[in-house]
Amino acid sequence: MIRIWNKTGLLFLMFFCLGSFQVLFGQETVKDPLSIEELDKPPVPPGGIDGWNRFLMNNLKYPVAARNKRIEGDVILKFIIEKDGSISNQEILNKVGGGCDMEALRVLSLSPKWTPGLKDGQPVRTIMHIPIRFRLGN
């Protein structure tokens, strides 16, 4: 007996076969990148929080334009810590102007590799949000 498949039946067969292949040979799909709340262990900058603060103190320069205009505020950066600890996909979520935004990005790009976040014991790409604070002294 010869059976003729219509388009719906053929599509169903294709999806069924692809789904079976993933069940047999695939692994559980992990959303990529993960938020810090989804991790077993979050990414850590070199030297931990104290190391990060030292890094900022040694590298962050208050832009002259911002200083002259007395601009202060928190630049919020969003970026990804890759599985190898490198930083990618930097973007500014909150701007304060006066060159502070670009200075925050510049310093972030200088950061050495972080220890990546872990999920189920494996390094994963992680979305990070951090404030870079610009405050003038008295």
From TrEMBL:
Keyword Nuclease part of the UniProt annotation: no
Bilayer topology term: Single-pass membrane protein
PROSITE patterns per UniProt: TONB_CTD
Molecular function in Gene Ontology: energy transducer activity
Gene3D superfamilies linked to this entry: 3.30.1150.10
InterPro entries with a match to the protein in the record: TonB, TonB-dependent_transducer, TonB/TolA_C, TonB_C
Keyword line: Cell inner membrane, Cell membrane, Membrane, Protein transport, Transmembrane, Transmembrane helix, Transport
GO BP terms, alphabetized: protein transport; siderophore transport; transmembrane transport
Cited Pfam families: TonB_C
Residue ranges of domain TonB C-terminal in the record: 47-138
One GO CC term, this protein: outer membrane-bounded periplasmic space
Localization of this protein: Cell inner membrane
Protein family per UniProt: Belongs to the TonB family.
Name listed for the protein in its UniProt record: Energy transducer TonB
Lineage: Bacteria, Pseudomonadati, Bacteroidota, Cytophagia, Cytophagales
